[in-house]
Amino acid sequence: MAHVLVIGASQGIGFETVKAALAAGHQVRAFARSAEKIALSDPNLELRQGDALKENDIAAALTGIDVVVQALGVPARELLGPVRLFSEATGILVPAMEKAGIRRLVAVTGFGSGDSRQAISLLQRLPFRLVFGRAYDDKDAQEMRIRRSGLDWTLVRPGVLTGGRATGRYRVLDTPSSWRNGLIARADVADFITGQIEDRSRIGKAVVLIHHALPV
Fold first, then answer.
1. Per-residue confidence at 196, pLDDT binned at 50, 70, 90?
2. DSSP string across 4-58
3. Burial class (CB in 10 A: 0-12, 13-18, 19+), 70
4. Residue 130 pLDDT > 60, yes or no?
5. For residue 177, is pLDDT > 60?
6. 11: which of 36, 68, 163, 204 is 20 to 30 A away, CA to CA?
7. For residues 157, 48, 16 and 67, what is the CA-based torsion angle, rounded to 10 degrees?
8. What does the pLDDT look like over 18-55, one tens digit per residue?
9. How many angstroms separate the CA atoms of 82 and 186, rounded?
């Protein structure tokens, strides 16, 4: 079993990944600014308070780690202003991992980032840009920084996120011709991420995760 650092562990996909990784028997270090509010108790869980934009916090959190999951998010109210969290945090994390000799990185971005932007349908493209444009421009820079690294990375691009329990009935779209937008439960994204902790078959690849494609 691996020692996993989850960055952005207090909510959303990060929180679900903490739960899924613990259930799979891994040791988990849950890293977040509000880590003390994570309402989980497990002998294999360590809560680590820290800021993903502070080099010292990230360097300290990487000690003894085998695999890093980066699952950052920004509040909806911040989407209309400049977004730099994803690129700046990645600009700190990647060299810190390289310095520490930690190679495996699973990073959550989203459908519409990087080269998957071309797969957005014409009907979805304008509202997507209006609402998420600034955030996804920053995710583009995040992905580019990861791709330029020497790490064993996998980019996880979920579709439209929903709540609820993991179903295990999701689609992993790993070729550009198959990429589509769709709904996906955060818990199912976490299930996929947890599988990537030990699965090396998708190193250097980007995948889109959905349950079913949205109508276009």
1. very high
2. EEEESTTSHHHHHHHHHHHHTT-EEEEEETTGGG-----TTEEEEE--TT-HHHH
3. buried
4. no
5. yes
6. 204
7. 50
8. 999 999 999 999 999 999 999 999 999 999 999 999 99
9. 25
